[in-house]
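Entry 14. Two folds queued back to back today. First construct below, sequence then structure tokens.
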Amino acid sequence: MKSRRLALASLAILLAFTVIAGVHPLATPAVAQEATKITVKVTDSGLDPETIEVEQGKLVEITFIWDHKAYPNEEHIMVLEGYNVESDKIDAQHKEATIKIVANKPGTFTFKCDLECDLHDFLQNGVLKVKTGSGGGGAALTKTKISIEPAAISIKDGKVTVNASLLDDKDQPIPKGDITFFINQSFAGRSGLVEIGEERTGPVGQARFVYEPTLTGTLKLTAKFEGMGIYDASELAVDIPASRAFQAEFGESVLPASGHSQELVELKDWAPAALISLIALIWAAFIFILYQAWRVSRVGDGGPGGDASA
């Protein structure tokens, strides 16, 4: 009897463990995808190899190695088009630089030297081929964010200075990232983003942008990062309010009379009235021409003002 109870108890314990394990399976640590590592030598005769191939979705590290013999003063910055990424400079003192990408775009992409050098023409034909993969899960892009703190915005002498920071998902700075700046403008009843400039982040992941507005009021600014290498795209929209200091800089309705900015503001103010006046003038001229043509036709027909002896 005891043995039977013991067997039933063991079975119950085993069943309970199975249920718990089914509901809460043992967690397995995530394994990061191992990078596909490729080496490209930059030699006196060109790139070696000139063509490299990877599978779509792979994390890829391409290391460029300075390997000159007859050109000891050559310097190179290698860029990979289509992935918006460039290497650090390599030379006789710093012989290696590595770029990293998630090969999420299939196709053929050019890598080349972006500095003018003696061998420049021989270093323009590198090819990266990204082949369509087997359909398995690929490496994920690293999330990014743009940060523009209120303290990073200053207004002086009619110019707005914005310091934008580009950070990864661990708040680490991302250097060499291109941030494009837009403002929201309205014209003829329609509004949209207008590009006003682009800046690249420095070693601490910050881009400094200076803009001279042509209008007063709240400035709606959008900063966009299109992504590069292993980093995903991101954007941020901020409003720069028309504070008292801002209005004092710019005046109540127009900018101070300096350069072309004042002329542009004045042009916008009187342009609608000028357009209406021009249209009215054109119509008046058209009516006058019609009237003169009518008079000429009347004269030709012997009407009033014509030759009565005819």
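Second construct, same run, same settings:
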Amino acid sequence: MTRALLLALLLLSLSVPAHATVEWTIEPAYLVPEWPTRASVALAFDFSRGKYESEESSDTLSLQPAVRVESDNFAVRAALPFYRLEGPIEAGSAAPTETEWGVGDLTLDFTYTLYPIVRGGPFLDFMTRIKVPTAEDLFGTGDTDVTLQLSAYQMLGFDVAALGDFGIRMRSGGLYRDTLQAAFILGSQKPGSVGIWLAYDWRESPLPSLRSDEHELTPFISIPFGEKLRVEPYGVIGLSEGSPDWGLGGSISWRF
């Protein structure tokens, strides 16, 4: 049971769901840079609980600081998560639990934003994400992964926007297969005001023999405090056995 538990919890750290980076995701739909270079820092918190096709529930807690630098149409983002994983070490509702702490893999995002060619057209993001194997034993695969992702942002009128992501994650290790992932986000927000959003997130399982695909709904709120500070609380509703049953979290970001 211990090995199955550890693999199940490990898989939680293999994907970066849409709600984990929403502090950056909605930004291009509203803001064309007014100066050539700017920087932001963020801290994201995430807690989730789920059975992941087993009999007992396991908990995952993560803290993820991130730094982002933008210059014209280009942006670079670096994030390093810290994890706390807890779950039963053997079968049975009264089984003792095991807790592990550790550092996850460093992720580096390189994004090029194509602003609308015509008025009212979509924003497009072309992103390459590199996962650098910095994690301690349990919290990573020890291999470098590369994700290629295309994101589109479209204003629909009446301050309503739709955002869509589609990507492929290519893993260099032999145990985990390459996977597809997609997300769709719909919401409303005026510049400088509180926004209400709903995200649907789908990710293929890298180990289908142990865990099914992930399907999640994530309602979240974007709350700006002036031009520099933003807070975004969210909740997670799992829609498949491969997803957590529920989760909650949030992020706080500061723009220099």
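Quick look at the second one. Helices lie at 2-12, 22-25. Residues 1-6, 21-33 have pLDDT under 50 and may be disordered.
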